[in-house]
Amino acid sequence: MHGLSTSLVLIALLAIAAPLAARFLDRVIKVPIVVFEIVLGILLGPSLLGWIQSAEFTDTLADFGLAMLFFVAGNEIDFAVIRGRPLNRASAGWLISLAAGFGAGLVLAPTLEAAVIIGVALCSTALGALLPILRDAGESKSPMGIAVTALGAAGEFGPLVAISLFFSGRELGPATAVLLGFVLLTGLAIFLASRARHTLLHSQVTRTLHTSGQFAVRSIMFILTVLVVLSMVLGLDMLLGAFAAGVLWKVAIARAPEKDRKVIEAKIDAIAFGFLVPIFFIDTGIDFDLRALTASPAALALVPLFLLLLLVIRGLPSLLAAPRNSTTADKLAIILFGATGLPIIVAVTSIGREEGLISGGISSALVGAGMLSVLLFPLLALHQHQRRPSARRQRGARKSAKRSEPDQADVAGDAPK
Questions:
Q1: Are 248 and 193 contacting, i.e. CB atoms less than 8 angstroms apart?
Q2: What's the predicted TM-score (pTM) here?
Q3: From the first residue on, what is the mean pLDDT of each consecutive set of 10 residues in the chain (417 residues)?
C-alpha cells in the first residue's frame, strides 16, 4: 500500500510538471504536453529511476483515461463538416494504409498475428492527440483542420474495427457478425437520439449544471460505461464503445442551449485532460520497456524504421484527403499529421504483448516510434502549414491591426462628442 501511495502522489506531481515544462519551452519549441507526460513516466518509472511502480489500480485508471480520450475524440468529430469528400477520401487512404501496413508486417514479423498487430499500428492516426493541438493552434475549423479531423476519424475508427475483428477470439465470420450487431445497435441509438428533442434531458442538464446534481456529467459517465461494457461483453475492443459513446453524447446534447453545451464541454475537458488522460500517458511511460529496447540493437534499429514506415504507410495515403488547391507545404503538413499515431499503437501492442504474439522489443519499438511521431510530426506539420503565403499575410494583417488600435483609439478620442 505504501508503494501505491507514493506512486499516486508522484503521478499527480508529474501531471502538474508536464504543462509547466511545456510552457517553459514554449518560446523555444512547442512540444505537445503528452510527450512530457510519457517522458516523465519513463524517467520516474522502472526503466530509469524506479520511483514509480506499475500497479493494478493505476493501470485501471489509465484504462479509464484511454477510454475518455476516445470518448472526447468521438464527441469532437463534427460529421456534418467532414462528411462527403473529406471523409470518403480519408477512408480510402486508410484502406490503402491498412493493406500497406499488413504487407510491411508480413516482411518484419515472424507470424501472421504479429504482422496484423504491426499493420494495424502503422495505419493509425492519433486523433485524440491531434485535436487539442489543432484547437490550440486555431486550426480546428480551417480546411486543414477539417481534413486532419477526417483523417483522424478514419485512422482511429478503422483500426478499432480491425482490432475487434482480428482479436475478438472468434472466427472472422462470427466476429464480423458481432461487430455489425454492435454497429447497428449504436447506430440505431445515435439515429434515435438525433431524432428526439430531449426536452427532459436538456432541462435536467440546465437545472443541475451548477449544482451537486451534475446530471450532464453523470449521463456522460453512464453512456460511456454502458457502451464500453457492451463492447467488452461482445468481445470487441473497449475503445470502440468509448468512441461510439462520444458520438452518441454529441448527438443527444446537440439541441441544448449553446451556453450549456459550452459549460459541458469545459467539464468534459476538465475530467479528461485534467485527470484521466494524463494518467494514461504517464502510465504509458511507466510501462514502457526501455531495457527491452536498448538491450537489443535490432529492436533499437526498428524505432527509426517504424517512424519512417508511419510516414510512408500512413502519411502518403493521407494526401488523398488534402483540401483542394493545397500548396506543397499544406500537403507536407497533411502527410505529417496523418502519420502521427500513439494511442492505438499503445492499445494494439499491449494486446499483442499480453497474448504473447509480439516480443517486448517490437512492442517498445512501435510505441517509441509513436512517441517520436507525436513529438515531431505535429510540430513540423504546423511549421509547414504556417509557411503558406496566405497564412503569413493573415498573421501580418493581425499584427497591423494590433499596431493600428492605438491610432484608432486616438481618432475616437479626438472625435467631437
A1: yes
A2: 0.81
A3: 82 95 83 86 92 90 91 85 89 95 91 90 88 78 89 90 73 70 79 78 91 94 93 85 91 89 93 93 88 84 95 95 90 94 87 83 90 88 70 47 46 42
